[in-house]
Amino acid sequence: MNQILSTGDNSKKKNEKSQKQKSNYKSINYQYTGNSGNISSVIRVFGILLIVFGICMIGGASYGLYNSMNQQVTTVNVQEKPVISVKKVEGNNKMLLLNATSEIGMEEVVYQWDNQEQVTLNGNGGKYIQQKIQIPTGTNNLTITATDIQGNENTYTQQYILEGKTSLQAADNGKIQILYKGNIDEISYITYRWDDETEQTITQEQLIEAEQNLQNEEMQNTDNQETDENSSNEESSNNNQQNEESHVIYEIDAIGGRHTLTVVVVDNENNTETYTQKTNGVSIPKAEISVNDEQTAFVISLTDDIELQEVIITINNANYQNQKFGQKLTGKEFSFEIPLAQGDNTMQVEVINSDGQSVKRDIAFTKQ
Predict the structure, then answer these.
(1) Given 38, 67, 96, which residue is the final one in a domain?
(2) Within this chain, do residues 93 and 131 fall inside the same structural domain, yes or no?
(3) Burial (CB count within 10 angstroms: exposed 0-12, middle 13-18, buried 19+), residue 275
(4) How confident is the model at residue 148, as a pLDDT?
(5) Which letter does DSSP use for residue 127 in this model?
(6) Does 299 lie in the same domain as 264?
(7) How far apart are alpha carbons 299 and 281 in whole angstroms?
(8) Which among 147, 180, 357, 170 is positioned nearest to 275, based on CA atoms?
(9) Full-model pTM
(10) Are residues 134 and 218 in the same domain?
(11) Is pLDDT of 341 > 70?
(12) Residue 221's pLDDT band (boundaries 50, 70, 90)?
């Protein structure tokens, strides 16, 4: 009984202890829950601070990039063009010294004398380009274009006049004469070219032979012939005079139309002298007339080295009695057909070019 009671008391004590433990557990659980809420609040606050910091960092970086871009754009806008300076080389009136500069770097310089070939100098991003340029003989225009690495351009144009020993003149025989002020023995060779065609070379031997032939022609054209002794003295006098005055040393065939002739004289010391001149040779138009294979029409083909201007045809057959027809033309070539009438057909074609030169062609054909 006592044991049972004792047991019952023990059970009661156990139950009370258990309840206390449970109560303790609940208290612990409650206390833990309270700690979790505080940690979450701290985390939220820390996260908000990180977000604000991140926004500030991004905003600062964006502003820095924007400011940098504005500065770059401003730099491009205020950048000046490349500076071109050209002056004669001291002690050499046949040579120019070209200087092109840019603070941001040079891309290239292109220079050209009149219609001659362009010369390109690469800058490779450096701040300056320097080059010596030889002045050709005669009156010539020099054009220089300088470009920096950002595409800014500056152009320089100037006319230069240089009197040298070489000059050109047109002859009555349809040739271009090369004149030289000095002794022909001091010339090593001469080159010449029309426009951009291949250069032709005249050797010293050819010059001597040509000069001798020209002198012989002049002597043959002289009305008053001197004795051999006087002729010899006169020849010696002429040679001395030729050393001081320009005289013809060579003749080349002229070509019709507007062209540029460039002559380069190289002396025995390898010094060069360049002479460039624009020419306007008279062009003669051409007219070809034939009958087509079917024998039904005249075929007319007109050509000119410069430009065709007008064609006039006169027809005499069963349909037209010496009637004239004209047409204005452009270009260098023109072709057309005139139908044949039954029986006799005669036609005259006159073609006129832009130089005012004309040519006539006649043809007759009987159609069966």
Answers:
(1) 67
(2) yes
(3) buried
(4) 95
(5) S
(6) no
(7) 29
(8) 180
(9) 0.48
(10) no
(11) yes
(12) low
d(CA 284, CA 60): 79
Residue where a domain stops, chosen among 162, 178, 212 = 162
Residue 338: which pLDDT band, with cuts at 50, 70 and 90? very high
Predicted local distance difference test score (pLDDT) of residue 78: 41
Reported confidence tier of residue 296, pLDDT bands at 50, 70, 90 = very high
| 77 within domain boundaries | no
**108 and 211 assigned to the same domain:** no
Question: 83-136: per-residue pLDDT in tens?
Answer: 999 999 988 888 999 999 999 999 999 999 987 789 999 999 999 999 999 888
pLDDT at 217 over 70: yes
Whether residue 134 is found in the same domain as residue 99: yes
Retrieve residue 306's tokens.
């410069």
DSSP string across 54-121? HHHHHHHHHHHHHHHHHHHHHHHHHPPPPEEEEEEETTEEEEEEEEEE-SS-EEEEEEEETTSPPEEE
- C-alpha distances (whole Å) from 366 to each of 130, 345, 346, 350 are 74, 6, 9, 21
Report the distance separating Cα 308 and Cα 181, nearest Å.
Answer: 40
75 part of a folded domain? no
Give me the domain span that covers residue 145: 83-162
> 3-state DSSP call for residue 225?
coil
CATH of the domain at 87: 2.60.40.10
If phi over 0 gives left and psi between -120 and 50 gives alpha, with beta otherwise, what is residue 127?
Answer: alpha
Chain segment 17-57, per-residue pLDDT in tens: 444 444 444 443 444 444 455 566 666 766 677 776 667 67
Do residues 139 and 181 both lie within one domain?
no
Cα–Cα distance, 254 to 264 (Å, whole number): 17
Q: How many helices (H) and strands (E) does the chain have?
A: 3, 21
186 and 213 together in one domain: yes
Distance between CA atoms of residues 176 and 163, nearest Å: 19
Residue 103 contacts residue 76 (beta carbons within 8 Å): no
Residues 103, 127 contacting (CB under 8 angstroms): yes
Please count the structural domains in the chain: 4
Asked whether residue 72 is assigned to any structural domain, the reply reads no
Report in angstroms the alpha-carbon separations of 173 from 156, 245, 283: 40, 23, 14
Angle at 72 between CA 67 and CA 78, to 5 degrees: 125
